[in-house]
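Hello K.,

You asked for the raw outputs rather than the summary table, so here they are, unedited. I folded two proteins back to back in the same session to keep the settings identical. This is the first:
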Amino acid sequence: MSIAELQVYSVEEADVTGGVCVVRCVGGVARAGQVYAVGESRIGLRRIERHGRAVGSFDAGHVAKVHLAGAMVALLTRGQVLTSVPPDGHALEELEAWLATDPPLRDEPHPRTLRVLAGVRMRDERLSDGIRLRWGRIALAATHRCARAEGGSDLLRAPELACVQVYLIQQFGPDRGGDPAALCRDLLALIDLTPEQAAAQGRVWRDLPYHRIRHLRRIKSLIPWLVLVRPHLADADPAARAVDAWATVRSDLP
């Protein structure tokens, strides 16, 4: 991701929540949703206007009116240069605070970029368990944002969420890493067939329309995650019996 730089021409209006400035892009590409550093503080680029209309971005050499969020806007001065902060430049605490506001999906870091970043940090064994767990929660939040941004059914997005949740449970145990039974119940609730129905359809899958084949494959993609958390379930748990049943019929699915 290229680093964008904006030079302030003027502060048109400002209050404690942000303001409007005229700026010139002097490097990279400025995009709505970016975050810029002002010393130790951060301001968000919420909207860009050029020639009286909103645009998504503008590049070096061009001037625009920008709507910025953050109390520091009122303290900006003519000639000051603002530098965008790439996702890996954000501290964990900043990302947690940012996500707590449920920011618009257009805001950076982009959900998938954030998911990748948090996933890497979550798996970094040089970090303490507590820090890795916090990055894991960021990864889960980013994955939920991916689902909202990219659309699609819950069944389609479930494996990505299960991947993070299962990792946390395996690495840190069912107490700190999450609730295996709740995860199983959530995944099982997405499946609209019984194991017997799925197996029957699986045995004749070549005769099924494509959308049914695809549906069976999505169901099949959930079963490995269910199996991985099965050891954490009590044998008497109904979810455990359901996981065992699905594990038995997985080989029948396309």
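The second followed immediately with the same parameters:
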Amino acid sequence: MDERTERVRGDWNRMSGRYEQGARLQEAVLGGVRARLCAPAAGRVLEVAVGTGRNLAHYPAGAEVIGVDLSPAMLEHARARASALGVDAVLREGDAQELSFADGEFDTVVCALALCTIPDQRRALDEMHRVLRPGGRLLLVDHVDYTRWPFRLREARKEHPRRLPRAVAAEAGFTVDSHDRVALGFVELVAAHRGP
């Protein structure tokens, strides 16, 4: 694990205890976005950066969900949520930039509001592409790049600035099937698939 990734892991471990407080406000802004994101998930599903498991309640019956997260502390919350919901999901530690799964192992990959915090977005999407079977679906929701001054200027100065989720997915070889701005335009919902 490189230094940047280790730093992000430490940040999420520290924030895990108070994450749920901010997440309630986030849910008020997002509305039904999580349900909309997870509804098309089918078969063997990998959720990358599962966090505290806020998507677990939204997967359709029959989906076999495996969730990975960089932070052991966030995973503790996800396990408690899965237990409270009666959801049978496998939750384990893992790095989105280096997934420990075989090529083509999943039918669907889901990533919600996490791509923007992963140090190397492109590497993470390359990994998501690799573990999907040909024709498999990527379901992604994330914050968009800033387009207004002074936020655009501040973002451009970062080592790894935010980018449009659909643009990074397309660069990683996905075919974008649909995209939609939600949550007052600050978030983009993307459905894509891996080609044959």
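The CA atoms of residues 1 and 175 lie 29 Å apart.

Happy to rerun anything if the numbers look odd on your end.

Regards,
P.
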